[in-house]
Amino acid sequence: MNFCTVINCMDGRVQLPVIHYLQQRFGVEYVDTITEPGPCRILAERTNAALVQSILMRLNISVEKHGSQNLAVVGHHDCAGNPVNRDEQMQHLQQAIEFLRGQYAGMEIIGLWVDEQWQVEEV
Ligand SMILES: [Zn+2]
């Protein structure tokens, strides 16, 4: 299996750092990428059911067609889709991870934070 999956922000500044980090972290060549503005908040609050379903539908394709067993969710500095401080974003990230772990018990699911230097750290 040569794929992992990321639920990332749509922000262009975080794409390559996150992809490169995950290739190393999970030892895969390809990172299937699902993007939304501020996805942690979308998955933490789940007020927009259609949007949550859309994310899960894309995740299913990655899992079922590409055999992905590893998933990351991303929050980052200066997020236009979730313009709250780091602490609040961390809470959204944790809630998003808990929700996804409930949906995909077999996957390893991690959270990533991308800081103001566009460095990636696991949280
Ligand atoms: Zn963002």
Structure, explained:
This protein is an alpha/beta fold and 123 residues long. It has a single domain, classed as Beta-carbonic Anhydrase, Chain A (3-Layer(aba) Sandwich), CATH 3.40.1050. Helices cover 45% and strands 25% of the residues. It has helices spanning 15-26, 39-45, 49-66, 86-103; strands spanning 3-9, 30-36, 70-76, 108-114, 120-122. The chain has a five-stranded mixed beta sheet, with helices on both faces. α2 crosses α4. It is globular, with a radius of gyration of 13 Å. The model has no long low-confidence stretch (mean pLDDT 97). The structure holds zinc ion (ZN). Zinc ion binds at residues 9, 11, 37-38, 76, 79-81.
Strand and helix map with partners:
Elements: E1 3-9, H1 15-26, E2 30-36, H2 39-45, H3 49-66, E3 70-76, H4 86-103, E4 108-114, E5 120-122
Parallel strand pairs: 1-2, 1-3, 3-4
Antiparallel strand pairs: 4-5
Strand order of the largest sheet: 2-1-3-4-5
Could you list the spans in which at least 5 consecutive residues all have pLDDT below 50? none
Q: Calculate the terminal CA-CA distance, rounded to whole Å.
A: 25 Å
Structural class: alpha/beta
CATH structural architecture: 3-Layer(aba) Sandwich
Question: Using only CA atoms, what is the Rg?
Answer: 13 Å
CATH class: Alpha Beta
What about the largest sheet? 5 strands, mixed
For the residues shown, what is the average pLDDT? Answer: 97
Order of helices and strands: EHEHHEHEE
What is the third-level CATH name, the topology? Beta-carbonic Anhydrase, Chain A
What assembly state would you assign to the polypeptide chains in this entry?
A: single chain
